[in-house]
Specification:
Layout (H helix, E strand, L loop, with lengths): L22 E2 L16 E3 L1 H14 L16 H5 L3 E4 L2 E4 L7 H6 L6 E3 L1 H11 L6 E6 L5 H14 L3 E5 L3 H5 L4 E3 L4 E3 L1 H22 L12 H4 L6 H5 L1 H14 L5 E5 L25 H6 L10 E6 L18 E6 L4 H9 L11 H12 L4 H8 L1
Parallel strand pairs: 1-12, 6-11, 6-12, 7-10, 10-11
Antiparallel strand pairs: 2-5, 3-4, 8-9
Amino acid sequence: QGQGLGLTRGFAASGAPEPPVGKKAKGGNTEGKGKAEKKAHAVSLQDVLGEVVEGATGAKSKIFKAKNPYPPLNLEDIAQGAKRSKGGQQGSLLPEGLPKGLGMELLGGPQVTCRPEMISFLRDVLSEEGHRKYLVDGGKGTGKSILLALLVAVARLNGWVVAYLPSATRVVQGGRFRLDEQTGLWENPDVAVEILQNIGTAHGAQLEELGLKHLLLAEGADSEAAQGDGGDQQAEEDSTQKLVDLLTGLASQDKYPFMVCADDYNALFGETGYTDYSDRPLSPHDMKLVCAFRWLERPEVKRGVVVAASSATVPVRKTVKIPETGDVSHVSLNPISYEEACAMWSKHGLEQPKQRSKEEQVLRNFVLGVNGDGHAIRDYSA
């Protein structure tokens, strides 16, 4: 129904057209590592913003609005839960928390190893002139979660409203669940409360301006209230529908660009941790929140983008294909190269060994042995 979610069972709405083959974004490179990739270096988020803005100015892009509501913050501020204000309202830039890889990056200081394809991806997504849907893929430790967290931070700094799901596994495995007899779908109100609180913390002032703040929970509401330990329990029980209505409202407005960003997206198509009254395992498309976040198969938002990233560690059968409708851009991240690993290690005071030395060969073999896994590389440096 228009820009609404139109929640349905199944992997895609009936009668939906066959999705076209996704296009490779300029930032993705599956043919190998180009020379530009070797120039990865540690930069602060402010430097990333500066480069994005500089690149956008010449192209007359809409990336950086003249009325930027928030001052640039570096990653150290993000790690400390830095507060920013807009119209007297305080909010956190990333109330959802930092992914593990980004937290490890920050152990060496307020910089992150910024790969060239990350800058290209940020510029493409935030321009509002590229694709409307993105699916990020890559092996374990290639930086997908870091990329999405940076994207959310930069988007919010530029005035976007973002519904950020750091891990879709939270939707299919966490908290209480109950059957909505009207829709026949199962709800998990505890998770909905958590997501609503995060969106409200980051975008309370913007939601009030859009007339959508009534869909947020009252201040002080938490999961304990949802368990009957106080507060408005009925409001907590209605949290799943409130979240669905909020996403629908944000997708249909055009005052602020809106982004749905979900990591571990393929978890929405695997097994759940829930069973029904007859002890039958529930499939993902029986869950209302799963349907609410499967945006790659939904109509495009009126103004904004959908960004999803699949995970190689989520227990989902490799034969399961993520359904898509419309023009979905597929972005593939390469494994971490030796040069990029050296950039990460340098943040911890490790010097790059001389060329053709025994130390260089050992480190090259290590990077090759872990298949360019950024987690293993950061663990080594830490």
